[in-house]
UniProtKB/TrEMBL annotation:
Annotated protein name in UniProt: SMEK homolog 1
Family assignment from sequence similarity: Belongs to the SMEK family.
Residue stretches making up the Serine/threonine-protein phosphatase 4 regulatory subunit 3-like central domain: 142-633
Compositionally biased spans, kind Acidic residues: 670-681, 793-807
Compositionally biased spans, kind Low complexity: 767-776
One annotated Gene Ontology cellular component of this protein: nuclear speck
Gene Ontology terms for molecular function: protein phosphatase activator activity
GO BP field: DNA damage response; gluconeogenesis; positive regulation of gluconeogenesis
Gene3D superfamilies: Leucine-rich Repeat Variant, Pleckstrin-homology domain (PH domain)/Phosphotyrosine-binding domain (PTB)
Ranges of Polar residues composition bias in the record: 721-746
Segment forming the signal sequence: none
Amino acid sequence: MTDTRRRVKVYTLNEDRQWDDRGTGHVSSCYVERLKGMSLLVRAESDGSLLLESKINPNTAYQKQQDTLIVWSEAENYDLALSFQEKAGCDEIWEKICQVQGKDPSVDITQDLVDESEEERFDDMSSPGLELPSCELSRLEEIAELVASSLPSPLRREKLALALENEGYIKKLLEIFHVCEDLENIEGLHHLYEIIKGIFLLNRTALFEVMFSEECIMDVIGCLEYDPSLSQSRKHREFLTKTAKFKEVIPISDPELKQKIHQTYRVQYIQDMVLPTPSVFEENMLSTLHSFIFFNKVEIVGMLQEDEKFLTDLFAQLTDEATDEEKRQELVNFLKEFCAFSQTLQPQNRDAFFKTLSNMGILPALEVILGMDDAQVRSAATDIFSYLVEYNPSMVREFVMQEAQQNDDDILLINLIIEHMICDTDPELGGAVLLMGLLRTLVDPENMLATANKTEKTEFLGFFYKHCMHVLTAPLLANTTEDKPSKDDFQTAQLLALILELLTFCVEHHTYHIKNYIINKDILRRVLVLMASKHAFLALCALRFKRKIIGLKDEFYNRYIMKSFLFEPVVKAFLNNGSRYNLMNSAIIEMFEFIRVEDIKSLTAHVIENYWKALEDVDYVQTFKGLKLRFEQQRERQDNPKLDSMRSILRNHRYRRDARTLEDEEEMWFNTDEDDMEDGEAVVPPSDKPKNDEDIMDPISKFMERKKLKESEEKEVLLKTNLSGRQSPSFKLSFSSGTKSNLTSQSSASNLPGSPGSPGSPGSPGSPGSVSKSTSQMAAITTKGGLVGLVDYPDDDEEDDEDEDKEETLPLSKKAKLESS
């Protein structure tokens, strides 16, 4: 049988001062050759892997806490703890540590955390212990000064803590506290406040166990009521005894558990309400207090979780119709607090915790509670539901899918959540925002599991769109039956914005489910009715929904948009917005710019054919003129199919050979000497030349002449455009300096037609404005007559298209030049 005495959990302290569970295993101490010393080893009980290997350093301060904890620091910011299942095992390991460090096992800390100066060390060595003044009323000021003077020195803190432990000093101080209160000795009470506060900062578990015992804790809180910095004492004890009532909703039979709950509540109260906010220097001094509360909570959750009778009674009373409302409210609040405590557990323990609750029937119980009229009970149930969803959404999804096979849609758990979201009475919709976040988590495919037999995404989304989506969209559909929203108050607008946010998320993450739903239910048309809302945030939500759909570039969506003329509400909102430079204006322009940049042909044609007259006067951006240009290019290609066929000939000719061969040929062309060019020697290997160059060059020359003519027309149109509005873009005509540097440096002696150095070329300094007929082809290739700054958006695809044409025709034109010479 496994030795449970050595069974431990390994914890490390994270940056948030919370303990992280590193695993459960069995601890041993042995000599490790690699570390050159006695070490603590913890091997995992699951697979025997090494969880911890830590050398027992002679100078490391080890602390024993609560009889089953050993805590120490490996480095400046790396704290470790071993939590033993049994006290006997903790004592055995503690003796080993003390043996290595040469310490008495009766101590609770083996070293001081900070080294002292040599002088202080010598003084402390000469005086083996700290002598405390006798515990009398007249000497309280002296005691307070001694405690305050000991805090800066770790060695003196240690000696003070030992003296307080050994002499039972705390109980004597608390007896004097009663005397001071009876005599109304305010000065003495102020001294006691400073003394008790200083004892807290000693950060000593043994002292905490005395102070937090049943007989002492209320007197300790009483001492902390008399803060000298306050003119009047606080009434903490009155609050704890009269206002804060311990409600035992289900009788707890274990007296130890009951005492632990009382103790944890009061210590938490001391930490949060009684003790002053610690300074930066004092914060680490209370780390043991944090640990004390943390491990108490872990113990409470574990003890309750193991008590099956307690949990069975809890859920039976929760779902019993005979339970009165007040009792049910107390039960739900207890369950909420129980789940909140579980947040201190580590992932594997939390997983077991929620599995226990699931087996007990927490989800059916929540379904019953959420159907009740009491708003406070429903709110607490929502909080419990949020714990379940955040930790294990798959468990919730599995439950609701099983439930759908037995119940009607109206009483499904998810539909209850949606209804509570829709019916939230809070003007700011705080509860609805929380519930929307939970729904989003449930429908998020990123956290859905996939197994060999089934896919959770497919099953759950099929269920959600069949049983729940109509409930979610009901307020939207009810409010958009006319051309304007039937209700346009602020709360309704907020709710519809939340629904649109979730629908937009669905468009992005769900594929055919949401597409079928939008097209079949005509959802987009109804959403765009909200563009007429007086609330700008709601109109923008509607626009964002449409923008997300367009961003998918899905032709099913595009055909639906065109068939229903769904750009009309957007154009109308754009025109109604007028010349105002606001988010609505920018968002609409961005949507049309996306269509232009991505060259979505169907939408481009639809917009220009139906809305060009309304948009043609917008000239402070070039988006709409750019769309018109796209449309004309498309129409020209349709009217002149020869252009497309010629492009395909060029593309096929260029790419039928290996790309590396082509690059080599281009490099050979650019590196060719002028003499070689004059001699008319072909650089391209003869086998790669087209069989009939004249047949191919004829359509090329026609295409280049057409392209050059079209470019010059576009330049004239754009030069005449009178740009006005909030932006006055500057532009210039510029030719590229040449595709390669050696092209621009060609000698004028090279009389190749259209060469960059020839007198008639655009690159020639002699005639910058004239382009001869014989050089028209090369001018179209080696020049780049682009407009700069005409559009707000830098990524102009027109130039990209021209660059592609240039690249496709360049190698052929070079061959043509060679042959013509």
